[in-house]
Design brief:
Radius of gyration of chain B: 15 Å
Number of helices of chain B: 6
Helix content of chain A: 25-40%
Number of domains of chain B: 1
CATH superfamily of chain B: Class I glutamine amidotransferase (GATase) domain
CATH superfamily of chain A: Aldolase class I
CATH architecture of chain A: Alpha-Beta Barrel
Number of helices of chain A: 10
CATH class of chain B: Alpha Beta
Oligomer: heterodimer
Largest sheet of chain B: 7 strands, mixed
CATH topology of chain B: Rossmann fold
Largest interface: A-B, 30 and 31 residues
Distance between the termini of chain A: 21 Å
Strand content of chain B: 25-35%
Radius of gyration of chain A: 17 Å
CATH topology of chain A: TIM Barrel
Shape of chain A: globular
Structural class of chain B: alpha/beta
Structural class of chain A: alpha/beta
């Protein structure tokens, strides 16, 4: 869930935001429907808003009985401590970690790799190579996505949340090539994000790309696909799915 | 009934407290020796690193307090590992209630596994009232790089590359490797069962 000013929002290719409801209510509903984990990314995170985010995290933790990750503007040990203390299970870092990779190392040492998720927003360039983007997709870098992911794992990132900006919100399927490259070559779980539109897309990202998990937002927010139906389908494809 | 959650330098304490709140069970988070000793049930949670956690407990003499407890004690995740003899995580001597070793998952245990284990997995061979009402192969949530070896103290098993103890029991001490506080309905039932012991 992308969070802006305390509300769940969803865009397409990172723009054109639509309101999708209260994050706590949605989170509790998804947990009850069988979602395995939740991710909350504060896309307006600024220093003034950080206290608000901590309060939201606390409310989520009170109402949701499955694990959840929180991210958005996380840039220090203190930021992470506040969010974990309020009940978050994992923290995702993005831009700040790219600018100061030592942050990943510091966080892993302080809190353990298991709660440090590296979020990467990536976009495919004309030559076919995937590059890292920062600041919610607004700033291009010249770093190749795979290189950054590999380096971050070496520094202590425990999971990678890979969002394809090209696929985000399009419902045209996940980015199989880059997901496969990361999942096949890195030693940490890869969560594929961006593009999930049909049940087949989920099957493909698991079977063809080897993703460890798949994240979707808009199709669930706008009830185009229900989690129980999706899980029944994946079970029929002989994929390991938690029965709840 | 007085339920105490031991406060120390490890995470997920808040999550355990919230899980109890959802079950309408009151609990106190404290590092006060007397409060811990006088509790009816003690929960010893933890997400963190073994060595720094042990140092913290020793500095506050909580190590001796925990080993001396007579009431039901539930160690969760790192809390369970600290109840064992020794952890390979930074070569840490632990509380020694269980004469067991905590080992790092081997990178090549036959099956290709990713470390840490982060995610849902099944528990089986459930042999304790702690698992009353819990079906064999129920899904529970795990986050860990180290595991407790299987032994006669095992009351639930799990497989991740190799078979390991997902839960252990000795006298009044119980340990759960998984995060029962984050394990949806089965997790809540297990917590409730512990409170009802």
């Amino acid at each position: 869930m992308d969070i802006k000013d305390g509300r769940t929002v969803k865009g397409t290719n990172f723009v054109d935001l639509r309101d999708a409801g209260d994050p706590v209510e949605l989170g509790a509903l998804y947990a009850q429907q069988g979602a395995d984990e939740l991710v909350f990314l504060d896309i307006t995170a600024t220093i003034e808003k950080r206290k608000t985010l901590a309060e939201l995290v606390r409310r989520i933790a009170k109402h949701v009985n499955i694990p959840f990750t929180v991210g958005g503007g996380v840039s220090s040990i203190e930021d992470v401590k506040v969010l974990l203390d309020n009940g978050a299970d994992k923290i995702s870092v993005n831009t700040a970690a790219f600018k100061h990779p030592q942050l990943i190392n510091d966080l892993a040492n302080e809190f353990g790799s298991q709660c440090i998720v590296l979020a990467i927003d990536a976009k495919k360039e004309d030559a076919g190579e995937w590059f890292v983007y920062l600041n919610g997709g607004r700033t291009k870098t010249n770093t190749i996505c795979f290189d950054w992911a590999k380096h971050a794992v070496m520094l202590g990132a425990g999971e990678i949340l890979l969002t394809s900006m090209d696929h985000d919100g399009t419902k045209q399927g996940f980015a199989l090539d880059i997901t496969k490259q990361l999942a096949g070559n890195l030693t940490v779980p890869i969560i594929a994000s961006g593009g999930g539109g049909t049940m087949e897309h989920f099957k493909d990202v698991f079977l063809k790309a080897g993703a460890d998990a798949a994240l979707a937002a808009s199709i669930f927010h706008f009830k185009e696909l229900e989690i129980p139906e999706l899980k029944r389908y994946l079970l029929k494809q002989n994929l390991p799915v938690r029965k709840s | 009934m007085r339920i105490v959650i031991i406060k120390y330098n490890a995470g997920n304490i808040q999550s355990v407290l919230f899980a109890l709140e959802r079950l309408k069970i009151d609990a106190m988070v404290t590092d006060d020796v007397r409060d811990i000793q006088n509790a009816d049930k003690v929960i010893f949670p933890g997400v963190g690193e073994a060595n720094s956690a042990m140092l913290y407990l020793k500095e506050r003499k909580l190590d001796k307090v925990i080993t001396g407890l007579q009431q039901p004690v539930l160690g969760i995740c790192l809390g369970m590992q600290l109840l064992c003899q020794y952890s390979e995580e930074n070569a840490t001597g632990c509380l020694g209630i269980f004469p067991l070793q905590v080992r790092r998952f081997p990178a090549n245990a036959g099956e290709r596994i990713k470390i840490p284990q982060i995610g849902w997995n099944n528990i089986y061979s459930l042999t304790s009232p702690l698992f009353k009402g819990i079906d064999e192969n129920s899904y529970i949530y795990n986050v860990h790089s180290y595991y407790v070896e299987d032994s006669s103290y095992t009351i639930a098993k799990c497989r991740y590359g190799l078979e390991y103890a997902s839960a252990i029991k000795k006298d009044n001490f119980y340990g759960l490797q998984f995060h029962t506080e984050k394990s949806s309905a089965p997790g809540e039932r297990i917590l409730k069962n512990f409170i009802g012991l």
